[in-house]
Amino acid sequence: MADKAGMIRWFLEELPGLRENGIIDPGTEEKLKGYYLEKLAAAPSPQKYFLLALSIIGGLLITAGTILIFNYNWDMLGKRLQIAVSFLPLAAAFCLSVFTLAGRRGQAWRECSALATAAGASIAVALLSHIYHTGGDFREFMMLILLFSVPLIYLFNSISLTAVYSIMLFTQLSWQTTDQTMCLVLLGAVLPMCLYHLLKENSPYRKVMRYVVMVCVLFGLLVFSETSPLPLFTATSLFFLCGLRVYERKENMWGNPWLILSFVTLTVLLGMGSSGAWITVAFRKEETLTLYGLFEGLLLAAFAGVFVHDAVKRQITAERILLAAILLTVLVPWAPEIPAVFQTMMNVLFALFGTALLRNGWIHRKMLPFNGGFIMIATLLGCRFFDSDLGVLPRAGLFILLGIGFIVSNIILSRRIRKETSHV
Question: What pTM does this model have?
């Protein structure tokens, strides 16, 4: 949104020059200026985000200081006063929440209210368990706080609490919890919030949610995938597919964390498949519906939904078809049981994907897909040469030639892009 506001400001500065050169008349200039000034006023400014971050940090510092003061004098307080103090942060957060909701305050107030209420509940639970010596471990404490945070996320439409929630999920992994049902419940509880802002075209928090949903899916992979590569292939293909859509809309790369990460992961997975590394890994088979199967099914449904949507919009490209082919190859039950066939298919798909990216980058004069395709081809050749009987010198010579080809091809492509741009 900040980039869009900058473009609008630049266009407004260009309007007088366009009028003076006779490109537009004064009436058109005034209409354009009025239209884009309204757009600029509606767009959230960087200062708002900065003030939001400052308000969150300030609230946390005040809370931390208050806790330290009471902690220093804790033993001097009686039991009743200790209980009252335990609920004091929660009561203050409740008053702040009522003030925010009743007054229909802005997003900064909502974020502070959500974080303050979640923090107040955490403090109350921690202090009461200490006063009454109820026991329990840190994992149970985090489970309780996560469950309490879910209604706050939706009540305040809090982006910061959603991000904190997704990070807090990983505390369950650090304690090696085996309660996969609860993990799936916690994961599913926050996904509607993420999907709402991802699918809403005018949401100013789409870019933030792209990072958050990556954290959530990574948590699911670590909990449910075990030793099988199927969910990892599916999640990588899904993020690559979504990253392509964002890239084709020419958004800023900082707002597209899916593309680069999924490209690197897909290159590694295909390299392992072409080298036969997945042959030693058990492709898990499930005869009945399990949480593992449910998680894999959700990922597959998401991939199929995005793929079909692109097909309806006539945006099917070679990269999208190859992503579906890779996923189908991994999902075919007999493929992992025939190592030679599976390895050959991985090699072919790896080569085709790299070639498709190279061709796309060269035809459309785009450096990113061109270099991505070159990296894939070089990785495939590197994997094959490590498996071959060639000596050190032939391998060294080939890698030198690849490096020279990479530099020369980038120079040629960049010159063509610069030449076509200058003609335009």
Answer: 0.75
